[in-house]
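My main concern about presentation is that the manuscript never shows what a single data entry looks like. An entry of this sort, consisting of the sequence and the corresponding backbone structure tokens, reads as follows:
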Amino acid sequence: MISVLVPQDCPDHELQLATIKENGSLSPFAPPVIEFLDTFSKTVLLDDTTRRLPEMAAVAHWVRKAHILELQAAFEKMRGERLWVARGIALHFAPANVDSIFLYSWFISMLVGNGNILRLSQNRSEHVNLLLARLNPLLKQENFRAIRNRSLVLSYEHNDALTQKLSESCHLRVLWGGDESVRRLRAIPMNPLGSEVVFPNRFSLAVLDAVEFTRQDQGQLRKLAASFCKDAYWFDQMACSSPRLVVWVGEQASCRSAQELFWVEIEVEFGRRGLEYPEVIGLNKMVSAYVAAGSGFVDKVHPGACGPVSRVHLMEHASSDFRRIECGGGLFFESEVRDLNQLVPLLSERDQTLCYFGFKRSDLNNLAQSFPMRAIDRIVPIGEALSFSTVWDGNNLLQCFSREIDLQ
């Protein structure tokens, strides 16, 4: 069954697709788009329900007018005198684990002028349904007709024939999801003139300077713990950018002291936030921890494997395959290195975000020059792992969602 979610009162997805084609593209950062996104931002932030939902508030804050104007300035600076226009129609497939990511993908594509089709999972969260409920009334407003006539949000079970039909109608296909989902979708033919941007499974980690960490006072430790919990637990550690490996840099004694302080603070912060997981999550973490040990990935499973913080110590020279253990819920691999450059052998091409604490920008810049091929696309302070950027997985979305015309 095909459900049209946006615009909600559209009786037929084929009719809306025809409307999108008929209306064509907008110019980049068209005033109606900026006004629409700013109105959406205010609608979410002024609503008692949605503003209390962290991921919803984050999206709304991201599309406030002040930030959109910053993006416009960055776009114009990057474009310079070149001629950039919309690609045409963009088809987005949202991931199931962090389904609100579709909003960022849609809004960036909207900003550069594309018409947009989005396919959402039928198992989407209630938070997404709330956002859709806020979007539809806005699209009914006459001053936002331009956005309504260029938007279609669908939900349907896996249907390769429908996906192919939509793919043949688009000029850009954007795939967010697990490796298997991406492989299945990439096998479906699309418009020969179309381009494709893919965001498959990734792995992320945190690196901390042990000595610098132990120098922090209690207030600073609490703040750092809150930032780390935001990165790790916001999407139950299932977001690609949430850290699952924690690496300490320093002498062994310094690392041990820092670890004892850090994980106590994380457990306290977990309780302070009132977070709870069902027992099955704890059991799943314990099983995953012992699977990691049995597979030769770890040499120690710390006590409390069923608790909010489950720690396993990564074996030296462990295979990169430990990254495929995707448990979530607070299962952390842990390791130590003597200096920052020794982090390099631990990295893999699957690694996306490196969160850090206690290092200078120059140190991180030097480290980046030694990364293995394709490893690490983002280097951000702890607390910013889930902050969305127009540069994602090495792609500048403002640029790759656009098309350049060679004007001589």
